[in-house]
Task: inverse folding
């Protein structure tokens, strides 16, 4: 509260000293302030006093709400959908374009807050890590969407939201896609969750490379039955996914068990659908259980849907689009309706904060037949373009958030870590020994538009910084060796598709310079707080019933284990 | 009612005879049915009986509403905005993307019906002709957006909606952009309007090539002051617009007078803004006058906005976008709010049908600095792509149309001619001696989604048929000489941007064949009802106060007048 944030020495030298005279801090429950990126210190210098006043008001409001709720902070239900970019859920005008509807998410939007400018990371694992740790994925080393058995994942050193909330007295449960690594320390149950049911990997193994897809001719290029291999020397090049672990179940720090799949079995779309329905039913079941406990709860349901490619999913099309992903988007919307109904039925809807959002843009390799498509923004998953990193995000919390509001303020997926920690009265458990990208956006959530505390984002593709957003402008970094003053800048209001750079005469020559300064400050902060490596280990540690084919796979992997 | 539609002989030969056994007709006030395109006869064969039943119900409902309104059909206020494609007005989720808002149009949408799949023509003049005549522009010869003094325009032979409604007892007024020709017979006052105030041409002359734009450096390429013309032999190549007629005023079949511009004067952005504000104020004034009369009225206000390019329009930016066209879109939305308020104030809102729509997609030559941009759909004005021919369209009529509904049924701008004629109880005045593309969509308007009567559209660029839409599919015609079975087909739900043709194996080889059949039927009907020429004449006939510079221009034009 009284202690002042101090910029690192090198940063002091790069911007005028005047900035560092008496910088107030965001009020903190503990003495030490949270360490944010350099850009935030600049905003703090400009808005710190106003923010400190707002923070007092907000803290009093949150305390009042806890008071009225028997002293407990709200329950949190965090629903993260896969590969759904901006305009794919909860916006009827846009659903129409694609010939399907998501009425339950639309209703949630009407009852809550629509975050109109949510930046995620460009891919599954990075977004999920960023949400869980409040740190951009690049800082944790988990920069790629994990696709195969790799023996790596989120380090135990990272502090997750589940750990923060556990410290504050929450009961924590994870259901569905996790995707933060296939090694023991990365598993949800070793990253703060009291109980979890989740697949170890992503959906490629399950929804694309299954037997149904092979029969339907979706994976002709993979199937040994569907191609003559006369000239094929290497018989292992094309992956056989059936040795990989599918879904596991377990409790905090305990062993995991693979479930619903036997040795020698072949995975089909039916397995996938049952697994997905299982996570949804598990979510409903856990809600009942958790609502009877004394603790506030943090329940995370991360569906693998709408990832779906085979026609056999569709008994009778429910959408005019008819593509498997459009059908699945509509289906998962119905499931979200079931979860929201359950909250009503249990009488806990008012004091439960519900988030529904997408994790990144559509994967352009999936579009077309799947029924998914790009729209509005250019690009998709893995791209630093807006199409890759802008998603719909809705938050409902009836006792605290005004119904039906839209905010255009910028927010980043890492902000959810910090914001939810504050809502849960758990800020003191946010670590102070590392750089936290997530900012506290509680004021915007409660007071609405113009109360946002972010006007910038650094966008990476994997480990490479690709663009810098500030206000409505986006600077695409030039390739190595090119002079950044010639790099293109886009006005996202005037050109949302990022295909016509601004005219340097119209916007002022040298418009790129402040972006270069931002880049230097951002990279400079890494001298003090370097990016870390992810963890490496033998895959599948702590899973007690590995199938023989999985054991053979682990033995091969162990031989190549990096130190 | 009893008489049956008969297909032309050649058409009978191309499709099975069974189609033509006992084809029922849409019920008509007069004996002769309206002549529609071949495609509609096929739909009529499939749905005629159901439609006839619905039509009886609808007619009874409309009669009831007239009864309750002192025997009068509703007033009609028809607001058509320029160069605003789909997603630019009335959709808050999409306004956000571009950093502006259109709250009044959004409110109109909430109070009325959103037509989510309105097809227009690809450019100003064609869309306006199509709306006025119920015929695709190609049938009337007015296929291009008129940009210069051309001595041509809509033929007197064509029958406009204003003429149809006049016959039925309406008082008719037009304010603002007209753009159907610069010759006497094409003027609004000679095409059915009792009174009109309108510019003769489009906005290029006024909003782009004015002195303000020159000073601001928008038109450096045009200005003789801003370029050295050392090697310029032809001093007339770059247009001097000031001799062209600007705005005129007049009454039915009477002379017109040019107003608010003197001989020798130079046009500025200020003139343009005053002109635009004048049409808006004239609309408010006419509403007051018309509301005191005994007749139902048809008041058409076609703003020239949001076309606007100079910064001097913007005293203080009202939008985060800040571009002149984004600012103007927000401004014209405010004006629409004034018109809607006036209807309330006059106590006539309930029995007034209000339409607000855009005429075609954004002109891609204007985007970027103007603040306008493409989004969702690919392409813009002049393109047959969805970006060129899809616009937002809203209809409010409180006593008849359910508030807040969206319909995904297809509608074409020509349908407004036929639909409004029916609403006005004026169907009998629709001519029966020509092909009318417009279908009666009153059932959809009143009964909602799935009551639409169209599942096809033929899309032209100028006089060239470029694509055929049927259901969710769009067939891009191949270039002359190419075999149409290889032409690309797009699934608009799965690929709204029309950049990934459907896979012929997935959709069935030969999927192009029914489109080729549609094309043949459509072109075949033209053997019986050929496309016509537009009218040609000396420009500016009947304008009684031409300035000396304009008279000189006309003299030059007269010398080249085509016979």
Result:
């Amino acid at each position: 509260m009284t202690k002042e944030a101090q910029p690192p020495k090198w940063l002091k030298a790069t911007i005028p000293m005047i900035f560092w005279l008496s910088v107030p801090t965001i009020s903190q429950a503990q003495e030490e302030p949270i360490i944010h990126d350099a850009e935030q210190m600049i905003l703090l210098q400009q808005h710190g006093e106003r923010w400190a006043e707002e923070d007092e008001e907000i803290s009093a409001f949150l305390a009042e709400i806890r008071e009225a709720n028997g002293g407990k902070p709200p329950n949190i239900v965090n629903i993260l959908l896969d590969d759904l970019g901006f305009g794919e859920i909860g916006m009827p005008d846009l659903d129409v374009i694609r010939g399907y509807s998501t009425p339950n998410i639309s209703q949630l939007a009407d009852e809550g807050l629509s975050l109109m400018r949510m930046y995620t990371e460009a891919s599954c694992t990075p977004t999920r890590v960023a949400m869980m740790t409040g740190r951009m994925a690049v800082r944790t080393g988990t920069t790629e969407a994990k696709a195969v058995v790799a023996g790596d994942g989120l380090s135990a050193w990272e502090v997750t939201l589940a750990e923060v909330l556990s410290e504050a007295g929450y009961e924590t449960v994870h259901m569905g896609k996790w995707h933060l690594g296939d090694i023991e320390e990365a598993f949800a149950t070793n990253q703060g969750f009291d109980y979890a049911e989740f697949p170890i990997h992503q959906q490629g193994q399950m929804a694309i490379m299954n037997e149904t897809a092979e029969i339907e001719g979706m994976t002709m290029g993979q199937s040994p039955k569907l191609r003559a291999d006369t000239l094929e020397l290497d018989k292992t090049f094309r992956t056989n996914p059936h040795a990989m672990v599918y879904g596991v179940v377990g409790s905090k720090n305990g062993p995991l068990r693979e479930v619903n799949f036997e040795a020698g079995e072949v995975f089909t779309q039916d397995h996938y659908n049952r697994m997905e329905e299982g996570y949804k039913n598990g979510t409903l079941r856990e809600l009942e259980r958790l609502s009877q406990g004394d603790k506030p709860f943090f329940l995370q349901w991360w569906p693998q849907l709408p990832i779906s490619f085979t026609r056999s999913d569709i008994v009778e099309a429910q959408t005019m689009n008819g593509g498997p992903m459009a059908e699945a988007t509509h289906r998962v919307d119905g499931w979200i309706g079931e979860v929201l109904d359950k909250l009503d039925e249990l009488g806990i809807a008012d004091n439960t904060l519900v988030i529904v959002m997408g994790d990144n843009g559509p994967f352009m390799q999936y579009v077309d037949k799947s029924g998914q498509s790009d729209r509005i923004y250019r690009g998709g998953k893995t791209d630093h373009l807006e199409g890759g990193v802008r998603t719909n995000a809705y938050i409902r919390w009836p006792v605290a958030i005004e119904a039906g509001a839209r905010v255009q303020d910028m927010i980043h997926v890492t902000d959810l870590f910090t914001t939810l920690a504050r809502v849960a009265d758990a800020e003191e458990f946010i670590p102070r020994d590392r750089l936290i990208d997530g900012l506290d956006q509680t004021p915007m959530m409660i007071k609405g538009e113009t109360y946002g505390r972010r006007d910038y984002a650094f966008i990476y593709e994997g480990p490479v910084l690709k663009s810098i957003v500030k206000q409505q402008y986006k600077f695409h970094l030039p390739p190595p060796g090119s002079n950044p003053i010639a790099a293109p800048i886009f006005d996202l209001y005037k050109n949302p598709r990022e295909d016509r750079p601004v005219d340097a005469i119209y916007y002022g020559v040298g418009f790129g310079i402040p972006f270069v300064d931002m880049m230097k400050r951002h990279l400079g902060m890494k001298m003090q707080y370097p990016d870390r490596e992810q963890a490496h280990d033998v895959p599948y540690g702590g899973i007690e019933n590995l199938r023989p084919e999985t054991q053979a796979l682990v033995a091969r992997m162990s031989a190549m284990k990096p130190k």
